[in-house]
Amino acid sequence: MRFARGEFPVCYFRHVVKVTFKPPSPRVRAGSLPGRQRMSCGKLAARLRCSRKCALQQAWVGALAMGMVFFCSPIVSIFTDRIGCRTTAASGAAIAFIGLLSSSFTKSLEVRYFTYGILFGCGSSFAFQPSLVILGHYFKRRLGLVNGIVAGGSCLFSISLPFFLKTVGKAIGLAHTFQVLSAFMFIQIFLSLTYRPVLPPPCDSQHEGQDKTVSRSVQQQCWSQMRKYFNLRVFRRKTYRIWAFGIATAVLGYLVPYMHLIKYVEKEFKEDKKDWVLLVCLGATSGLGRLVSGRIGDCIPGLKKIYLQVASFMLLGLMCMMIPQCRGFEGVIVICLFLGLCDGFFTTIMAPIAFELVGPMQASQAIGYLMGLMAVPMTAGPPIAGYLNDYFGNYHVSFYFAGVPPIVGGLVLAVVPLVHQRMLKKQRLDSGKDKMLVSTRTPRHTLLPPASSR
Predict the structure, then answer these.
(1) What is the mean pLDDT of the segment spanning 201-228?
(2) Phi and psi (nearest 5°) for 2?
(3) 89 with 124: CB under 8 angstroms?
(4) Mean pLDDT of 58-78
(5) pLDDT-based confidence at 13, cuts 50/70/90?
(6) Which residues cross the membrane (predicted)?
(7) How much is the pLDDT for 7?
(8) Are 315 and 240 in contact (CB under 8 A)?
(9) pLDDT at residue number 22
(10) How far apart are CA 243 and CA 249, in angstroms?
(11) Mean pLDDT throughout 405-422?
């Protein structure tokens, strides 16, 4: 599938700049990459006109780049622990820069699946995840508020960039638009160098000592090296396993409204000139949700923060199911306002919960494995919705399908604080039994006097 100069819709790149600009400090980054890479994917689906299978193909464009961001996260966590946040982020920005720049020299959509979807997506993953981890090096008590502030910066770009890119795309064309976006990513290479890690890297001296003192076979040594780099200790925590499974379940329908909502509006309500209103509403309320949820999260002790994610997923699923019930464009606007709030609450509170579950030393691995588990369902959700649209001839079933996984995932997440409280109660009981056993085993030093002296 090829497009002439300027024919391929500029909206395809509307979410690219949202991940390229980063302020010159790790404390004030541009925000959450997943929250910035979604807004305009549906715009691509709305502009491309092709065969009946086109909805499925369109959905893969944004979903592939989005999936690579999450699929590479476990590998990114290893590099973050080994070479640090600064080097990892700068290297990822360089890879993403090459992907964007090379996309400007081709007109083939299939080639851009690699240059943009894979190369740029992989580089964005390396540039994004260290920005989550580095905040935990500087802040502890107000980590939720800090995440809300820095993540809210992306919403400013979500509101303004659609108009900027639309103007630039019409003026200079597709290839030069790619080059402009690559310039932003080139700047991010230098801005990533401002990261200054404070916490020490994970210590592996225990494993190294064991390797030196104990003779092992080649297979055992290889397995030991794999365990050193792929730290699976976070999965020993039952609460983390439940939390990761719940989020992976919920995100199966998470991206569907962002990918298909605009084309649904154009198809149902014949609104092709006011679709920018939806992007503005999503960006504005998402920024508000990130600021509010960060402050609220700091006021909620311990793992009870997860209830914010539970509420956001439950509301997200309900709003997805309400989209086919809208009888006017105004109703869709109201739903977009709530969708933005759900996005803000879910995105901001994710890193603080990871720090609560596993601690700051293993937070990088916890976030990386979580995003890796999210890769497959998040990538598969929009194409499945596009297939349902092609099969049934409308998006009604697609949005009903999108509403079920967030509700199920929210119910699973609600169990995590309960399991945590049960584990703490069990630990207290076990410690109490141990103290009783120690007291009963203590010898008595006072002896009764002999019978003759009585």
Answers:
(1) 57
(2) -120, 155
(3) no
(4) 76
(5) very low
(6) 59-76, 83-101, 113-136, 143-165, 171-191, 240-256, 276-294, 306-325, 331-355, 367-385, 397-419
(7) 36
(8) no
(9) 35
(10) 10
(11) 93
Note whether 11 and 175 are within 8 A (CB): no
Q: What is the amino acid identity at position 268?
A: E
Structure tokens at 62: 């944004």
> What pLDDT band is residue 189 in, cutting at 50, 70 and 90?
very high
Give me 399's structure tokens. 């949005």
The 3-class secondary structure across the chain, one letter per residue, is: CECCCCCCCHHHHCCCHHHCCCCCCCCCCCCCHHHHCCCCHHHHHHHCCCCCCHHHHHHHHHHHHHHHHHHCHHHHHHHHHHHHHHHHHHHHHHHHHHHHHHHCCCCEHHHHHHHHHHHHHHHHHHHHHHHHHCHHHHCCCCHHHHHHHHHHHHHHHHHHHHHHHHHHHHHHHHHHHHHHHHHHHHHHHHHHCCCCCCCCCCCCHHHHHHHHHCCCCHHHHHHHHHHHHCCCHHHHCHHHHHHHHHHHHHCCCCCHHHHHHHHHHHHHHCCCCCHHHHHHHHHHHHHHHHHHHHHHHHHCCHHHHHHHHHHHHHHHHHHHHHHHHCCCHHHHHHHHHHHHHHHHHHHHHHHHHHHHHHCCCCHHHHHHHHHHHHHHHHHHHHHHHHHHHHHHCCCHHHHHHHHHHHHHHHHHHCHHHHHHHHHHHHHHHHHHHHHHHHHHHCCCCCCCCCHHHC
Q: What percent of the chain has pLDDT over 90?
A: 21
- Whether the pLDDT of residue 231 is over 50: the answer is yes
> 148: which residues sit within 8 A by CB, 6+ positions away?
290, 291, 292, 293, 294, 295, 297, 344, 348
Domain residue limits, the chain: 10-196+234-431
Fold of the domain built from segment(s) 10-196+234-431: Growth Hormone; Chain: A; (1.20.1250)
Structure tokens at 442: 């203590």
Report d(CA 100, CA 179) in Å as an integer.
7
